[in-house]
Amino acid sequence: MRNRTSPPPARKLVTALDIGSSKVCALIAEPGENGELKILGTGQRESRGVRRGFVADMERTEATIREAVEQAERIAGLNIDQVFVGFSAGGLVSTVASVELEIGGRQVEQQDVDQLLTAGRQSIDAQGRMMLHALPALYTLDGLQGVKKPLGLHADKLAVDIHVVAAEPSPVKNLDLCVRSAHLGVEAIVASPVAAGKACLSEEERELGVALVELGAGVTNVSVFAGGMLVGLKSLPMGGIDITDDIASAFGTRRGEAERMKCFYGSATTSPRDNHDMIDVNPVASQEEGTETVRITRAQLIGVIRQRLEHLMGEIANALKELGFSGPFGRQVVLTGGGSELKGIADYAQGVLGRAVRVGRPKMPGLPDAHSGPAFTTLAGLAQFAASKEIDIRQTATSHSAAPKQEGGNVVQRLISAFRSGY
Ligand SMILES: Nc1ncnc2c1ncn2[C@@H]1O[C@H](COP(=O)(O)OP(=O)(O)OP(=O)(O)O)[C@@H](O)[C@H]1O
Ligand SMILES: [Mg+2]
Fold first, then answer.
1. Domain range holding 102?
2. Ligand 1: which atom is nearest the Cα of residue 336?
3. Distance between CA 224 and CA 384 in Å, rounded?
4. Ramachandran bin of 250, using left for φ above 0, alpha for ψ from -120 to 50, beta for the remaining angles
5. How many CA atoms lie within 13 Å of 192's alpha carbon, on the beta-carbon side?
6. Do 9 and 41 contact (CB within 8 A), yes or no?
7. Across 88-92, 218-222, 288-292, which has the greatest mean pLDDT?
8. H/E/C letters for each residue in 311-357?
9. What is the overall mean pLDDT for the chain?
10. Helical spans, DSSP H, in 163-239
11. What is the tally of structural domains in the chain?
């Protein structure tokens, strides 16, 4: 049992908890004076009870959470109470809401900004979904777009773009319940792409336009960043697990063996040598009946992997198109998540998507080697999000009035041009 009676630590710590379909991991860190994070402990357990990012078995998920957090606590030598949790299941939607306020030619004051953000919060229609983020992004002063700090500037009209991420309520509530059942308080539930984007994209990429594709075990999240914020996302219920399952059924072996074959010998690209490289496969029956191992060529293995990848990349290309990621700014794609560890995947994706593709790893000094790969981008990003103290207007209270502005045209394109012309 977790010991929850010990006094809370005096230091201000942040704890990130990423509950994935293949692993649950936790990270305890201490923010320094300049926002840098000192990592105190990490923990990881194989996920049981999570399918495609959704909680499918409450008790098993809760137990795994407890074990992962306890491991991080042991390493850090302290107990934690509150966590930032990542949410990566389907049903996430992202929109940009815009509101406008008459200033009348005087200087913009803090009160005006507060009033505008309150009006923004009220104008957001989450359509029955649960709002995870409502972050003010770019301001517009009398048509001058892309202003980051409007305070003190004269204006007739002040407007703001607010980036909203919402999710289906039930899966979020189930996740929340599992964490609380493990005797942990939930400080915030953060959309996985928001966290991952923080950890593996540069500020410049996020401003000029970039697509982030997180290839998880059960979920692939495609998101587009522009003007410094996440402007669109689409969750695909597919991932590395599907490749493993295809290998297992193609060669009649167990999942664990198929996973090992994928990670050691798998590749997204082919070479003539693949026809000569032989791989031993233990058939499912071998453990019980002593059946001989089977030999296959590496080319056969890669053939199975590529068939699934073709489907996945096709879906990713469709999602990018749907999200308006095209034209001159739609050049850079970053792959992350454990699935991006597949050998040759960046080259393969570059060929299929016709864009520059790189693999994004978490940029966080001090991450232990075991947790520094792309599978831990969301975990690192959660801790960075927790430490960043971004203004979230979901909580702003007082009521003022400002007119909701009509949203028109392609938001991604508009944000890009706003960014380029605004400075
Ligand atoms: N070297 C590798 N080659 C190919 N695939 C790999 C490699 N290493 C890890 N993977 C795959 O990455 C996937 C795990 O990724 P990740 O840890 O990001 O998923 P998750 O966070 O547990 O799940 P999700 O976010 O989808 O709920 C697994 O399917 C695993 O097979
Ligand atoms: Mg994940």
1. 93-164+392-409
2. 18
3. 19
4. alpha
5. 33
6. no
7. 218-222
8. HHHHHHHHHHHHCCCCCCCCCEEEEECHHHHCCCHHHHHHHHHCCEE
9. 88
10. 169-181, 192-200, 203-208
11. 3
Please report, for residues 42, 100, 383, the alpha-carbon distance to residue 38 in angstroms, rounded to integers and kept in the order given: 12, 41, 10
Is the pLDDT confidence value at 106 over 50?
Answer: yes
Same domain, 105 and 189: no
pLDDT at 146 over 60: yes
**pLDDT for 395 beyond 70:** no
**98, 111, 275 from 107: Cα distances, Å:** 21, 11, 72
CATH number for the domain spanning 157: value is 3.30.1490.110
Total-model pTM: 0.89
Report the separation in Å between the CA atom of 218 and the middle of ligand 1, taken as the mean of its atom positions.
8
Mutate to test the pocket of ligand 1, among 262, 336, 371, 377 (most ligand atoms within 8 A of CB): 262
49 lines ligand 1 (CB under 6 A): no
Q: From CA 172, how far away is CA 289, in angstroms rounded?
A: 45
Looking at residues 213-236, what average pLDDT do you find? 92
Residues 86, 97 share a domain = no
Residue with the smallest CA separation from ligand 1 atom 20 is 20
Q: How confident is the model over 57-61, as a mean pLDDT?
A: 97
